[in-house]
Design a protein that fits this description.
mainly alpha, flat
């Protein structure tokens, strides 16, 4: 039996790390938080059978496994919908917070049907869409909107810097773009801290992805080391979560 698990290994980290961060930061999760996590995982999983049905995993895959994918895809959508409804039944005010991830996911859909998911813009949008599920999960815990936005922006932009770094190593974009983006982001965070728009010292949480971009720019590891780079990205984001927890106490 085919389970049609997503093949894009980097996407697992882009979704799971922000979800773990949302569950662990600022207090204990609620039942609605768990329902939202399951719903997000269901939608993430549904992406793979959809690609099979669209023939984007090859004609052979579609010919041999279209029936199984056609059964699994609506089942996963129904599970996600059911979990969303359970979360909203417990906390109806969560509906507005779901607008962010659904809007960002909506920007990715045209790239899926156009078979353009591997472009730089599409990968950046995917990273933001996956990271955005941290926002409703944090809101379900009663976290202030300001902190929920801060977590999403920090993690989302860090993943974007990571995407640019990896694509730079693959020579899809100039490698200096990731370093420059990280530097600009840290400067913006510092300015926001200086004018008390975000908690004091929270700009520190934006430094690790900038440092990673500089290291990758300096050492330029080859494609054979992309797995190690991926683990490094996960480690940097986890460090960022710890710094964020410290700076927002």
């Amino acid at each position: 039996m085919m389970f049609f698990l997503p093949r894009e290994h980097g996407a697992y980290g882009q979704l799971l790390v922000p979800l773990v961060a949302a569950l662990s930061l600022f207090g204990w999760p609620r039942w609605s938080s768990g329902f939202l996590v399951v719903a997000a995982l269901g939608l993430f999983w549904a992406h793979e059978p959809l690609l099979v049905l669209l023939g984007q995993r090859g004609k052979k895959q579609k010919r041999e496994h279209a029936r199984q994918a056609g059964l699994l895809f609506p089942v996963l959508l129904c599970i996600s919908l059911f979990c969303f409804l359970l979360a909203l039944k417990q906390q109806p005010d969560l509906l507005w917070s779901l607008a962010l991830p659904f809007a960002l996911c909506g920007t990715v859909i045209p790239f899926v049907f156009a078979k353009q998911e591997k472009t730089t813009l599409a990968e950046i949008l995917v990273a933001l869409a996956l990271a955005s599920w941290s926002f409703p999960v944090l809101c379900s815990k009663g976290v202030s909107t300001q902190k929920a936005w801060l977590v999403f922006v920090l993690l989302g932009f860090s993943l974007c810097v990571a995407v640019l770094s990896v694509r730079g190593l693959l020579r899809k974009v100039p490698l200096w773009v990731s370093s420059l983006s990280g530097a600009v982001f840290v400067v913006i965070l510092f300015a926001l801290c200086a004018y008390d728009y975000i908690p004091k010292y929270s700009y520190v949480a934006g430094v690790p992805p900038f440092f990673l971009a500089l290291v990758l720019h300096g050492f330029r590891p080859g494609p054979r080391y992309l797995r190690e780079v991926g683990f490094g990205i996960v480690g940097v984001v986890l460090l960022q979560v710890l710094l964020l927890s410290w700076s927002t106490r």
